[in-house]
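ligand=NAP
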Amino acid sequence: MRTYNWAILGLGNIAHKFAEDLALVPGARLHAVASRSLDKAQAFAATYGVPHAVGSYEDLLAVPDLDAVYIATPHSEHHAHTLLCLRAGLPVLCEKAFALNARQAQEMIEVAQAQGVFLMEAFWTRFFPAIGHALELVRAGRIGEVKHLVADFGFAATYEPAGRLFDPVLAGGSLLDIGVYTLFISQLFLGTPTTVRAVATPTGTGVDLSCAMALA
Ligand SMILES: NC(=O)c1ccc[n+]([C@@H]2O[C@H](COP(=O)([O-])OP(=O)(O)OC[C@H]3O[C@@H](n4cnc5c(N)ncnc54)[C@H](OP(=O)(O)O)[C@@H]3O)[C@@H](O)[C@H]2O)c1
């Protein structure tokens, strides 16, 4: 079996989990890491035994033998960082939330298609065995026709105005961080809604602390 050479762009919290888990995946190895800080990239590379460490995202494009890039930066950066890699002909696995709006998402898809390279949102929930099982039950008619779905996701976040969860510049807020999971469940089982109503509770930074949505 071929071994695919992965890179990580942006070395925050989830990048460490990805590096730990990639080591368990047959046919995959971590080949390069890119940070805005060379020291940080080198320390990360030393921890996980990664052969290439670079101190800017642009420098990643010059690393030889890359097969795919995992983008693990804040939501605000996904569009630019995905386009950076796609335009260099590199396949991309981009963290959720994929983009800030439909226009950005559309452009990312169009560039991937024009370049003929793979592009995917890193939405691991879609691959949970429990989700697969629930889909099988519904498709087999075991619970009858699905007419109503209730999805809930929340956690108590420490208020850090400059952190990615709260800073509007980094596209913080509950909808983009975890509301996307409940929307995904709705889309998967009930399809695209025709009507969306939403109310949000703002934080001191102006992003949504919580968001309640009714889709029909
Ligand atoms: N799938 C999941 O279960 C899951 C779980 C957690 C998070 N996520 C997603 O993963 C992404 C990253 O989340 P995280 O918790 O790892 O965030 P984080 O700890 O804040 O790390 C984000 C990294 O992005 C880079 N970055 C680039 N531009 C930045 C900027 N302007 N400000 C701050 N950082 C910047 C930084 O890396 P360098 O300093 O190395 O350049 C930073 O360490 C988000 O899209 C989030 O929604 C997914």
